[in-house]
Design brief:
about 280 residues; eight-stranded parallel beta sheet
Length: about 280
């Protein structure tokens, strides 16, 4: 059973995921029962951006972040053979990717996001991903950066926060965000070094903490370094569960709150209320 806390918020989830197809109603109800107020569900490409739009029309507790995931952004070029897949250094192979990639026109999708800006509270997830071999070439990295800058420019134009994915690309992502003078930033599931975390804090950016903090020391270290006024709770549901192998869901932000409270030496209610206040400030909710 989850403890009932005041004003829980999950700033990053993927409610359109196939693992929620059969019981999304129950998932949302459990979140509300735990004290949840809002879930920001994030798109990653053309189809998911439209799927989450439909979900938000059904649930008053669901808000939107329209995204262009770095790997999806290059899928069309890969299909056309316009991007070399020769890796510079070994890493994960895309054959092990958790979902099918979808080719789409990035510029057309950015235009759609601009046209639907009043329906979202943020842009993302977006960013850089150097994890997969097929996207390790210098050419692929260059194109990822170009798309990333396009997304950031749009976010500034429509005055929306950005939710950043930076897997194995934390330094490059940080440098680009700084170069583009981004102020409204949420570093999602950030795995960078202490120096980069401190740099983000100095830039005034936010860091979102997933329930996997229960079993990963890195996020405990991050919480120690980041002031509470710059923290959020997220789930990345159905990923990053507090229990290995189990599906994650928005109600588990209560687990992240509990761990943050222990580290900060505060009670859970105080932590939950401050994080919700952070969300009110950044997302204008």
């Amino acid at each position: 059973m989850f403890k009932r806390l005041m004003k829980l918020i999950d700033v990053h989830a993927h409610l359109e995921h196939k693992r929620f197809k059969k019981d999304l109603d129950s998932v949302v109800k459990r979140f509300k029962k735990a004290g949840g107020k809002f879930i920001i569900t994030s798109g990653v490409n053309k189809s998911t951006n439209r799927e989450i739009l439909k979900i938000s029309e059904k649930y008053d507790s669901v808000m939107l972040s329209f995204g262009i995931y770095p790997v999806d952004a290059l899928a069309l070029e890969m299909q056309k053979g316009e991007v070399s897949s020769k890796p510079e250094q070994g890493s994960g192979n895309i054959a092990g990717f958790v979902r099918d990639l979808e080719g789409f026109d990035v510029d057309a999708e950015l235009k759609w996001i601009e046209e639907n800006k009043d329906k979202c509270v943020a842009i993302g997830e977006c960013g850089l991903d150097y994890n997969w071999e097929e996207f390790q070439s210098g050419e692929a990295r260059k194109m990822q950066k170009e798309v990333f800058r396009k997304v950031l420019k749009l976010a500034k134009e429509i005055d929306k926060p950005v939710i950043i994915h930076s897997r194995k690309a934390e330094l490059d992502a940080t440098e680009i965000l700084e170069e583009e003078k981004m102020k409204k930033v949420v570093m999602h599931c950030f795995n960078g070094k202490k120096s980069l975390i401190k740099r983000g804090v100095e830039n005034g950016w936010y860091f979102s903490v997933p329930p996997v903090i229960k079993r990963l020391e890195h996020f405990k270290m991050l919480v120690e370094l980041v002031p509470l006024k710059q923290l959020f709770t997220e789930t990345d549901a159905p990923y990053l569960s507090p229990v290995a192998g189990e599906r994650n869901e928005p109600a588990n932000v209560a687990v992240a709150i509990e761990e943050i409270a222990k580290i900060k030496g505060m009670n859970e209610k105080e932590v939950g209320e401050q994080i919700f206040e952070n969300a009110e400030k950044l997302f204008n909710i």
